[in-house]
Design goal:
The chain is mostly beta strands and 144 residues long. It has one domain (5-141): OB fold (Dihydrolipoamide Acetyltransferase, E2P) (Beta Barrel), CATH 2.40.50. Helices cover 7% and strands 47% of the residues. The chain has one helix at 57-66; strands at residues 5-11, 16-19, 25-38, 44-56, 72-80, 89-92, 98-111, 133-135. The chain has a five-stranded mixed β-barrel. Strand 2 and strand 3 (25-38) form a beta hairpin. The radius of gyration is 16 Å and the shape is globular.
């Protein structure tokens, strides 16, 4: 059996990279996807879903180098369920409302923002020595 998910959205805050005890790089960042539609009563409804992305190895290093808050990105990967619930991670926001975060382990990342959109710092799709579509190492290389 196999599943994959493709997400296109905006990075919510700058990525954070760290290393496992064995030295494997891992980068995490959030991606927001937006949907807008008109309900049956004629009101415009705006819907935002947040995904927490984990990128391992070289993919994680490249994401940490080129992505920043507001960058447009396409992420291909697999859903990772919460070990306690088997579904998305749920939490309570500061205002008391319920929220959920869907966890995704990235297998490939495409940078969609241009240099101008990312503040001139560069992106893999606009040069900088890296490919615009980066596929990470096979899943067997993940340390757990």
């Amino acid at each position: 059996m196999y599943h994959t998910i493709i997400i296109v959205g905006n990075v919510g805050k700058d990525p954070e990279m760290r290393y496992t005890p064995s030295g494997q790089p891992v980068t995490t960042f959030n991606v927001a996807t937006n949907r807008q539609y008109t309900s049956n009563n004629g009101q415009t409804v705006k819907e935002t879903i947040w995904f927490r992305i984990t990128a391992w190895g070289k993919t994680g290093e490249v994401c940490n180098q080129y992505l920043k808050k507001g960058s447009k990105v396409l992420v291909e990967g697999r859903l990772t369920p919460d070990p306690n619930t088997g579904g998305p991670r749920t939490y309570t926001r500061q205002d008391g409302t319920a929220g959920a975060s869907f966890e995704v382990t990235a297998s490939a990342v495409r940078f969609l923002s241009s240099r101008e959109e990312t503040g001139g710092s560069g992106s893999a799709s606009m040069g900088g020595g890296e490919p615009p579509y980066f596929t990470g190492a096979p899943e067997e290389d993940i340390p757990f």
